[in-house]
Each structure stands twice: as structure tokens, then as C-alpha cells.
Amino acid sequence: MKKIVAFAGFSLLAVGAFAQTNLQVFYDFGENRKYVTTTLEMFKADDWGSTFFFVDYDYATKDMRDLNYYGAQSSYFEIARALNFWQDSNLGALSAHVEFNSGVGFQSRNWLFGAEYFMHSDDFANTLTLELLYKTFTYDDATEFPFQMTAVWGLNNIFGVQGLNFSGFADFWGQNVYWGLNNDKTEWIFLTEPQLWYNVGSLFGCENFNIGGEIELSNNFTKKGFEANPCLGVKWNF
């Protein structure tokens, strides 16, 4: 799952970026994965805040390809709206937040409601959005802690290298998850996906093209315990 663009639309309005769309293609080297993921991601700011969404498709694993199956095996979708009618006030960095996520191959669909706070450097090259959200679930006894905390960051031209950018998100939430038949459950889930991109296209007149990768670090997300799944990929900014 990817959600790398900051949601605070007024910040991008301040620097003249009204919309962003990109396509990312990754190969996942994680254990028992070995598959391709495509992510279509869009952000658009307006006078009332901003809208962000992404759609992930995970394609057949190596084991499935060995059986001559090559199609998409799962999909995940997320859309978020930041509401900010007071962008020019002293509370301009604070926005209301509403979000929906669901997918094929996932056990639930969720609504999230809350607030987000946006911070940035003077030139907006480095940004950080912090979110505190109330999270609903579609099945009973889902959690005794129905809140999610999220951080989304973006750092441009890191280490003084033009076109080298570091971005990512981190989620922490509570959810009752049952592992197999032993009814062993955990109530705390952590997921982060830091990404590193280099705008290699700038070297030959194609500013849209980036190469890089990410590493998905999680605890109690797709299985009990810690996981690290590295990916390499390309990104095209439209």
C-alpha cells in the first residue's frame, strides 16, 4: 500500500502545485512474494482543501506464474479528503480529514475521521503531515482501540543531491487479528513504507522518469511478528 503524497492542499497551493498524478511499478523481493505491484496515485488541491487517492494492484506471485497464472491477484484502494476552509487563518495548518479504504483480498473496509496537521520548511521542500483518526471496522469486536495515528513525509534533494527524494508514511493502529486456528490475537499493528527516488530522467531531458524503491516494514500486518519486504521500482510523474 502506498500513500506518499501529503494531504495538506493549502501547502501545495502556496508553491503553485495544484495537482499531481504518478504511476509506480514495483517488484517485491519479499519472502513468499516475488510479484509486481502497480500504484496509480493522485493528489489535487483546491480552495476547500485537497483530495488524495491511490489504487494498488498486486499481480501473480512467482509460484502462481509457475502455474501459468499471470493476472492481478488483489487490489487495494484508498481515498482521503482534507477539508480546510480557513487556510489564511492562524489555524491554517490544521485540516479536517475523512478517508475510506477497502480492497479485493482484504478482510474489511474502513472509514476514518479525524484531523491532520501540516508542517514544512520555509521553501516547502521538506514536509510532514501528522494525522489522528477514528477508525471504523466492518465486523464486530474488531478492536478496543479504534484509532489510527499516521505520519506522511517528503524530503526533496536530500544530502544536497538534486532530484534525490525521500518520502513515505507510517501507520499505527489497534485491531483484533486472529492468526490461524489458535485464536492468538494482537491488538497493535505498525506499517511503514519509506521510499527513495532519484529523478534520473533529468539527466537526459525526461523530467517525468524516476528510479528507486521502497521497503515495507511492518509488525503484525500480514502475519504475526515483524516483516521487511524490499522493492525496486520506477515512477512516472504525469
What does this structure look like?
- Helices cover 5% and strands 56% of the residues.
- With 238 residues, the protein is mainly beta.
- The chain has one domain (9-237): Nucleoside-specific channel-forming protein, Tsx-like (Outer membrane phospholipase (ompla), Chain C, Beta Barrel), CATH 2.40.230.
- Strands 1, 2, 3, 4, 5, 6, 7, 8, 9, 12, 13, 14 and 15 form a 13-stranded antiparallel β-sheet that branches. A two-stranded antiparallel sheet has the order 10-11.
- The chain is globular.
Could you tell me the number of beta strands? 15
Radius of gyration: 18 Å
Q: Which class in CATH terms? A: Mainly Beta
- Class of secondary structure makeup: mainly beta
Q: What would you call the shape?
A: globular
Distance between the termini: 20 Å
Per CATH, the architecture is Beta Barrel
SSE string: HEEEHEEEEEEEEEEEE
Domain tally: 1
- Looking at the structure, the CATH topology is Outer membrane phospholipase (ompla), Chain C
Question: What is the name of the CATH superfamily?
Answer: Nucleoside-specific channel-forming protein, Tsx-like
Mean pLDDT value: 87
Task: Walk me through the topology.
Elements: H1 9-14, E1 19-28, E2 35-46, E3 49-59, H2 62-66, E4 72-83, E5 94-104, E6 110-120, E7 126-135, E8 147-155, E9 164-173, E10 177-179, E11 184-186, E12 189-192, E13 195-198, E14 209-219, E15 226-237
Antiparallel strand pairs: 1-2, 1-15, 2-3, 3-4, 4-5, 5-6, 6-7, 7-8, 8-9, 9-12, 9-13, 10-11, 12-14, 13-14, 14-15
